[in-house]
């Protein structure tokens, strides 16, 4: 296993699933995709789940994935129990349970389909966004202070819209909004599995309110709407409500041509700071 | 069972679950909550699922519910198989499988919690909306023509924003947006279960594009964010992308005080017209 600072480990290798000699679907969850403290990123885990669902499906693309995050998931060997549902010419349903050495940690519904090259009848346009070169990279600090090491930062390149990046220097904008250009650090172009990763890749929107800390995901749904063009993806995350210790994060992702290619929404707990 | 035009059947009775003598959780799915052709509304079914999840949970309120719609579900006896997940002081996870006489039709993840009276740190404001008296009721016609009878229309009162109701007279606005005041016809005030119903209660957003017909739900996630105040709820549904036969419907629901109380997003198939 690579040390956290060994450079961009391959997304495909880190999310690979395979059958073991007993016919079970297994994965080796990569320690390099953590969000600190040995806890793996929720989008990374959901991409592994989507690969398991697609393994025996007649359709190659995850189009709707929703998961309950039962417990924090660490790196190491995992088993993916796939229960196939109805499958047809248009789509196939399935359920996936991800279990680590300590038992189940994620329970998911996955619908797969075959996305084509259709022009949209309707597609929400992207927000205005500065060029990649005019955006802010992450140096691993929050509010001007070094924070715990986060492997995900080395696996995904992120360039924040400066208007939503004030938290980097401790000057939060006061609005729960994050916008960033993102791409895989290993140079691989985006596909539906990478879009699932991107759907949980930004810092919590609550950081825009000055509430710093980890926001554990409770339930996350990702919809993949189109095959993304090569290049940077534009990711916008907003919260609709922060209340009573609960937070939502609503993501929309556009590809380099400006087409809306994915949407997600998660319920999370508000960081304790 | 009430005939479809017998008036407002009780939401509580129609979504009730109970244990049968064998200890199984069962329900009698009410034929009055259909969307035409004997197919029950997706929000109604999800409310029944949420009741099953809450039955043995230490927490009373469904806060995150996501379901794959495996097959269309008709009225009649149903069994709800609940698999409890981790439960704690803040929340409890569970999975629910809804099965009719022909086998499983919905597979869902449900998280329950205990919502309080917290003031939000952040809450997205409602869109501007005409008063209830200035909005449009439904007379059961689409594009000026009588359509198939839909039981749901008699169970939920809907008052459409005229700017999103052009489809009633065959003059679709050209944008996939619906806004309406809604309340239960039986006079019952909204609660988290009613919000789950409301999260799939409007005509498909594609009707705003002149694409009339049923849009079968593939996967639906609902987040309940707060206990709603009494009175009408304001529901806004938009589509982010319509492409390749796929449609999303993104709902936000505000209570009568203007607080955001629920959010949902579904992937559906585009109506054939």
Distance between the termini of chain A: 31 Å
What structural category do the secondary elements of chain A indicate? mainly beta
Largest interface: A-B, 52 and 52 residues
Largest sheet of chain A: 13 strands, antiparallel
Sequence stretches where pLDDT stays below 50 over 5 or more residues of chain A = 1-6
| Mean pLDDT over the residues of chain A | 93
Radius of gyration of chain A, rounded?
18 Å
Portion of residues within helices of chain A? 10-25%
Could you explain how this protein is built, in words?
By secondary structure, chain A is mostly beta strands. Chain A is built from 4 helices and 16 strands. In chain A, the strands form 2 sheets. In chain A, strands 1, 2, 3, 4, 5, 6, 10, 11, 12, 13, 14, 15 and 16 form a 13-stranded antiparallel beta sheet that branches. In chain A, strands 8-9 form a two-stranded antiparallel sheet. The longest helix of chain A is centred in the N-terminal third of the chain and has 14 residues, at 42-55. The radius of gyration of chain A is 18 Å and the shape is globular. The first copy, chain A, starts with 10 loop residues before the first helix and ends with a strand. The interface between A and B is large, with 52 and 52 residues.
What's the structural blueprint in terms of helices and strands?
The structure is a homodimer of 273-residue chains.
Chain A: H1 11-14, E1 18-19, E2 25-29, H2 42-55, E3 61-69, E4 76-87, E5 91-100, E6 103-113, E7 122-123, E8 141-142, E9 145-146, H3 152-155, E10 156-160, E11 177-184, H4 192-198, E12 217-224, E13 233-238, E14 241-243, E15 246-254, E16 260-269
Antiparallel strand pairs in A: 1-2, 2-4, 3-6, 3-12, 4-5, 5-6, 8-9, 10-11, 11-13, 12-16, 13-15, 14-15, 15-16
